[in-house]
Design goal:
Keywords: DNA-binding, Transcription, Transcription regulation. The chain has about 180 residues and is of the alpha+beta class. The protein has seven helices and six strands, in the order αββαβαβββαααα. The protein is globular and about 50 Å long.
Length: about 180
């Protein structure tokens, strides 16, 4: 990869080996805070809100990358100063037989489009599936929860987002990509 193009790309780029940053570009470092050399050999875990998020997203990403060699999502990440922000992440494995061994990942700060509202990982999963139009029973089946538990999560989401009814919640969530 051309080093000039990599280092000055208008989107955050990082080359990862086994979920450890080997190098990143200026935009990546600016987004997370600091300079590119601050991230060399830094475990990606350090940029997640929690170990649970790192493990959960890693499992989901590994499964997708084994199937297609690529993965993308939108998630909350953590800057060096501890601030949480929404980030669009896309990755491509350079070693399809071992997807996390070596890959190129892009990171885009999308926090201007979406406020950070503290959600539990389970609330986030329920919110995503709600936006995909799934019923409480369908969400419960996918997540191994009772539909009543899903409804309880939805009630908390309604409160957190200041929505009165489910269609209003979906409208608020759909304006903020999950």
């Amino acid at each position: 990869m051309n080093d000039v193009a990599f280092h000055h790309a208008p989107i955050g780029l990082a080359e990862l080996e086994n979920r450890v940053i080997r190098r990143c570009n200026v935009e990546f470092a600016t987004m997370f805070g600091g300079a590119p050399e601050d991230y060399q050999n830094l475990p990606l875990l350090n940029l997640y809100p929690s170990l649970a998020d790192f493990e959960r997203i890693g499992q989901r990403g590994l499964q997708a990358m084994r199937e297609t060699g690529e993965y993308h999502d939108e998630r909350v990440m953590r800057r060096r100063n501890g601030e949480l922000f929404w980030c669009r992440v896309r990755g491509k494995s350079l070693t399809p037989d071992d997807p996390f061994r070596h890959g190129i990942w892009s990171f885009a700060d999308i926090s201007e489009d979406r406020p950070v509202i503290e959600l539990t990982p389970r609330e986030r999963e329920v919110a995503i599936r709600t936006c995909h139009g799934l019923s409480a029973k369908e969400i419960g089946a996918e997540l191994g929860l009772s539909y009543r538990t899903v409804e309880a999560h939805r009630a908390r989401l309604l409160q957190k987002f200041g929505a009165r009814k489910l269609p209003e919640l979906v409208a608020k969530l759909s304006g903020m990509p999950l």
